[in-house]
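Customer escalation, tier 2.

The customer says the design service returned an amino acid string that "doesn't look like it belongs to this structure." They asked us to rerun it and document both sides in this ticket. The original structure tokens are below, unchanged.
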């Protein structure tokens, strides 16, 4: 054990998936954690959420009871023709667990949150159980004294403060980051379809595919349907994208009354009838605001840092938003554990920024590209034999190898060695093994 390690009193602003994940990671690293949630309960809104191997691996490492999340284990990615529904590009995940050590899970957001919350707060498990305080909306943070002031008048002091307060983050503004953002050129409506109800009506049974399925999304077109199964396949979660000029929902928010089903069907007169019949029985039809954010110049100051959507909001088109928040949490769990933390919080957070910012910025950029070109999406990005295959730059596509061959421990060791004047001899660069050849033709470490 590192003799200069010390237990920290950690304040996490925000009790969503990112906040619960970092509470688990820091609890396991030996710290005391209090989560402050602005609303009167800690939960999530929305439906399905992807957790690829680069996220699932940390759930295993943290000892999270994944079965509580009732996931669907994905077996393939399917891109279908907009009009006929015939598969255009298929990326098999049959050897996924064998290659990467972990499965690709698809969770219902509320179930995933509940699973993580149990892990963060329950008595069982490593470390001191985290505490959750609701109705604590962050008003200000004194970056010199590390005191948080809440709207309810309460003032608290913490050794380390983490802003996990989502896309509308208050902590981000306190750190002086004013995001350049603009509405996406596409709008999105979300709907849930009960798989049993669809089957009773004699509709095609997509739940049997165990797949993330896409209609459309080809070069330059904003029309795209994304289907992700969750709750063990019982619920089909549909994300329906269309040009913003056909419906602008940038002022809308989740949690309002369901919109009429006509709003969901209207943009798609030529859509494959099989999936259109599914959408016709869609429920809980909600708009999803889509904003494009430019990368932030930094994600920490002093003893305060950002995590998840607070630090790097991204478009949903790489299905990596939750994984990036989980990776952020994992990085903090490692940097502040008994092996690596030397008592210098600001130094650990500087390393956190160096480890996380390049990786999340890469995914953020790739997600914006995949918004209007499905071939830029991880998986489809290497299906070069597809007749419709076309990408902006074949050398720059994001690949599954980059996401899943990444070793965060090596990345952190490399950054800490540089900061502390140590020697780094591992054969990794930024967490990727030297000599790894990506399907794009790039070889890691080659000049």
């Amino acid at each position: 054990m590192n003799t200069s390690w010390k237990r920290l009193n950690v304040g996490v602003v925000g009790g969503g998936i990112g906040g619960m994940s970092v509470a688990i990671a820091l609890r396991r690293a030996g710290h005391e954690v209090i989560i402050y949630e602005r609303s009167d309960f800690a939960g999530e809104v929305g439906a399905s959420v992807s957790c690829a191997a680069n996220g699932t691996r940390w759930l295993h490492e943290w000892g999270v009871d994944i079965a509580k999340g009732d996931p669907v284990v994905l077996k393939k990615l399917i891109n279908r023709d907009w009009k006929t529904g015939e598969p255009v590009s298929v990326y098999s995940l049959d050897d996924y667990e064998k290659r990467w050590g972990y499965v690709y899970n698809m969770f219902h957001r509320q179930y995933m949150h509940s699973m993580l919350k149990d892990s963060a707060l329950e008595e069982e498990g490593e470390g001191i159980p985290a505490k959750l305080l609701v109705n604590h909306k962050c008003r200000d943070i004194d970056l010199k004294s590390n005191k948080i002031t809440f709207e309810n008048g309460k003032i608290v002091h913490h050794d380390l403060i983490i802003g996990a307060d989502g896309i509308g983050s208050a902590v981000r503004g306190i750190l002086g980051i004013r995001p350049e953002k603009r509405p996406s050129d596409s709008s999105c409506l979300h709907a849930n379809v009960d798989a049993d109800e669809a089957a009773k009506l004699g509709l095609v049974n997509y739940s049997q595919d165990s797949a993330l399925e896409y209609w459309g999304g080809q070069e330059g077109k904003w029309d795209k349907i994304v289907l992700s199964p969750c709750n063990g396949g019982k619920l089909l979660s549909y994300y329906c994208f269309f040009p913003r000029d056909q419906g602008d929902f940038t002022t809308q928010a989740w949690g309002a009354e369901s919109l009429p089903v006509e709003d969901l069907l209207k943009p798609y007169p030529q859509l494959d009838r099989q999936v259109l019949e599914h959408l016709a029985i869609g429920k809980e039809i909600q708009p999803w605001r889509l904003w494009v954010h430019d990368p932030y110049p930094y994600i920490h100051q002093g003893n305060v840092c950002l995590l998840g959507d607070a630090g790097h909001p991204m478009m949903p088109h790489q299905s990596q938003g939750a994984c990036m928040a989980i990776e952020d949490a994992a990085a903090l769990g490692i940097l502040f554990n008994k092996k690596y933390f030397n008592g210098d919080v600001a130094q650990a957070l500087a390393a956190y920024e160096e480890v996380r910012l390049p990786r999340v910025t890469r995914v953020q950029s790739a997600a914006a590209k995949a918004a209007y070109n499905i071939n830029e999406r991880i998986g489809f990005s290497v299906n070069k034999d597809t007749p419709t295959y076309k990408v902006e730059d074949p050398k720059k596509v994001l690949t599954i190898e980059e996401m899943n061959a990444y070793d965060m421990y090596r990345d952190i060791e490399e950054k800490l060695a540089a900061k502390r004047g140590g020697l780094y001899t591992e054969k990794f660069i930024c967490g990727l093994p030297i000599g790894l050849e990506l399907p794009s033709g790039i070889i890691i470490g080659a000049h």
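Tier 2 assessment: The sequence is consistent with the input. The radius of gyration is 22 Å. The chain has a mean pLDDT of 94. Sent an explanation to the customer and offered a walkthrough call.
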